[in-house]
Amino acid sequence: MTVERRRTLVRWGVTIAVVAGVAGLDLWSKRWIEANLATPRHLLPVTATAAATGMTVGDVVRTRFPDLDDGALRGSLWRLLPQVALDPGDPVFELESSRNLEAVGFFVFDPGGSKRFARRIERNDAWTMEKALQRDQPGLGLQEARRQVREALSRVSVAEYLKSRLPHVSDDEAAEIARTSLHPIPPDGGGVDPTALATPGQTYLVGDREIVFIPGFFDFSYAENPAGAFSMLSDLDEGVRRAIFFTLSLVALVAVGWLLVKPPGRGWLPILALGGIMGGAIGNLVDRIFLTYVVDFIHNYYRDWHWPRYNVADIGISVGVVLLLLVTAFAPHEKSQPAKEARPAKGARSPKP
User: Fold this and answer.
1) Do 107 and 152 share a structural domain?
2) Quick one: how many helices (H) and strands (E) in the chain?
3) pLDDT by residue (tens digit) across 64-121?
């Protein structure tokens, strides 16, 4: 094996390691964050075991999250009711009459049997649509607005409702969730006081948890970003936005792949920079394909100033771009040598003027 071939293999080995390292760390950190940070719409389950007899709900929660005291839990704890079995074709906004089910929404676990976190999805479309109709038609009375809204919503099935709230699930998964995984939220919200006695076997949902590293400056807190950096293109239709980001990601990956074949500079820095960019792009692309959004969690702030949350993939891309710009800006440029004037060979005649 020649020296040049050995160098090429080493270079590609390092490149693959950097890409896999950045993408792998990004995806692992996002999945860990999903299972350990909570918001009122992204909740973490804690089940009281048989040994919880005599314990408070707060004590049960602290068996999993010891950092959450009763003050932090107050107002962010819910009781998970047993799931209800609905037909995917049931009209979701007529459940009160068709199923005798009073629910302001549902807690839903992603399909697959892994109950790492629950999503809270509301059933408040009627109120939102009524307000929108009255705003767009000032002379429209409340009763007529309600009639029009009810007529429009009467055709929405449970499966369609779930697809609109959970765009990352397939049609078959939405139907399966309707039959087996809908936990109703009662009209009173189902909130629980952390000082109340826990019921063995009962599952409770934690709706607020973050990890603070530097108070007032740096923490990990959960966020879902369906748009791009700084909420770019957030107003576009979901399908259009996904197509745009998917296309841009593929173009970026092809461009970075080409630069890896022909690096813009010598040495290891261009390789490391391009590997970080490609690894970050792959990490975010995987989330967009399978979740339709990107999980962000790194949060820097100071008083009322907040930097948009970001993730490991964003760090890889940002650092890689900066390194690449520095390498390009400070790379030595080869000075072109002026062509030497050709002299006629000895014995040859000079051309006539």
Assistant:
1) yes
2) 11, 10
3) 999 999 999 999 999 999 999 999 999 988 888 888 898 999 999 987 767 899 999 9
| CB atoms closer than 10 angstroms to residue 153 | 17
Q: Are 288 and 338 in contact (CB under 8 A)?
A: no
- Return the SS3 of 249: helix
Tell me which residue range forms the domain holding 154.
Answer: 42-208
Backbone angles phi, psi at 36, to 5 degrees: -130, -10
* Residues 247 and 313 placed together within one structural domain of the fold: yes
Closest residue by Cα to residue 38 from 183, 206, 173: 206
239/318 same-domain check: yes
Euclidean distance between CA atoms 282 and 297, whole angstroms: 18
The whole-model pTM stands at: 0.81
Residue indicated by tokens 């339709």: 292
Q: Is 68 found in the same domain as 196?
A: yes
**CB 260 within 8 Å of CB 18:** no
Hey, which residues are catalytic here?
Answer: 296, 314
Are the beta carbons of 327 and 319 closer than 8 angstroms? no
Q: What is the pLDDT of residues 11-70, one digit of tens each?
A: 778 888 989 999 999 999 999 999 999 999 999 999 999 998 999 999 999 999 999 999
To the nearest 10°, the Cα dihedral for 269, 270, 272, 278? Answer: 160
How many domains does the chain divide into?
2
How far is it, in rounded angstroms, from Cα 87 to Cα 140? 35
